[in-house]
Amino acid sequence: MINDSPTTTSPEREIDRLAWAIDRDGIACADDVAIDGIVAHARTTTASPVLIDVLADGTQPANARTRAFGLVALQASRRAA
After folding, report:
1. I need a surface site. Which of 11, 28, 54, 79 has the fewest CB within 10 A?
2. Looking at the whole model, is its pTM more than 0.70?
């Protein structure tokens, strides 16, 4: 469960916010700073480097970036075993 405290910022909370924004407006309208933050966090996890690169590359097709976001969000949100 995501901590919904307004003073708390966590990667999971930012992923959730970005997911809702992408769902509402599409990835082309998503905040680049938010995407960069998710990318930076994902690079510290076991998320796929290829998917992270697709998400980070604004020249990639929107559908590819959206799919990459979904998978990166899932992978980056997993707790280490």
Report:
1. 79
2. yes
* Average pLDDT in the chain: 89
CA 80 to chain centre: 18
- Whole-angstrom distance between the N-terminal and C-terminal Cα of the chain? 18
Q: 39, 37, 81: which is closest to 60 by C-alpha?
A: 39
Residue 35 lies in a domain: yes
- Convert the pLDDT of each residue in 40-77 to its tens digit: 999 999 999 999 999 999 999 999 999 999 999 999 98
Query: Can you tell me the distance from the alpha carbon of 41 to that of 35, in angstroms, rounded to the nearest whole number?
Result: 10
| Best CA proximity match to 48, nearest among 28, 32, 23, 67 | 67
**What is the CB neighbour count within 10 angstroms for residue 69?**
24
Please state the φ and ψ torsions of residue 14, each to the nearest 5 degrees: -65, -40
